[in-house]
Amino acid sequence: MTGTVSGAAWQLRRATIDDVEPIMELERSTFVSDAWSEESMRAEIAGEHGYYLVAFEPEQPERIDAYAGLLAPRGAIEGDIQTIAVAPRARRNGLGRALMLALVGEARKRGAREVFLEVRADNPSAQTLYRGLGFEEIGVRPRYYQPDGVDAIVMRLTIPTPETTTA
Questions:
Q1: For 65-91, how does the pLDDT look when each residue is reduced to its tens digit (9 = 90+)?
Q2: N or C: which end of the chain has fewer CB within 10 A?
Q3: Which stretches of 50-159 are DSSP H helices?
Q4: Any catalytic annotation for residue 118?
Q5: 130, 144, 145, 163: which is the annotated catalytic residue?
Q6: Residues 103-116: tens digit of each pLDDT
Q7: Which of 27, 44, 67, 118 is catalytic?
Q8: Is 62 among the catalytic positions?
């Protein structure tokens, strides 16, 4: 997958175990107090039901500028956006949106009719992105993010059924 987002070119590809180290660098710098463990990330990327993408500029394929992950077993009606992070140097260019759309598309291919996610209550930028994609708030998990004790807003997207028309 290749695309230009707001004038900048990134390629998206499926993450592999070889990407764990650069993903973890971005994970730790983005989620300072509640980053996933390397073991958890490795298990998610290698897991049979996961679908993780990384984004990079073609001139620097070793540098991961963003990643995102979906958990959606084939045939299940629900999927979960597990994580998404965009490096500060790549933000505000539509890369997060492109990753989210790719994950929702994959969830649809796998049979999901709904996609869920949790977002920190103190992250209005991410909430705005998700609402712009059609996610709606359906609940709150108090003090979900530890050790900070920040609430998680639970959001859901009902995946629209693809429509075909005759030409």
A1: 999 999 999 999 999 999 999 999 998
A2: C
A3: 95-109, 124-132
A4: yes
A5: 130
A6: 999 999 999 999 99
A7: 118
A8: no
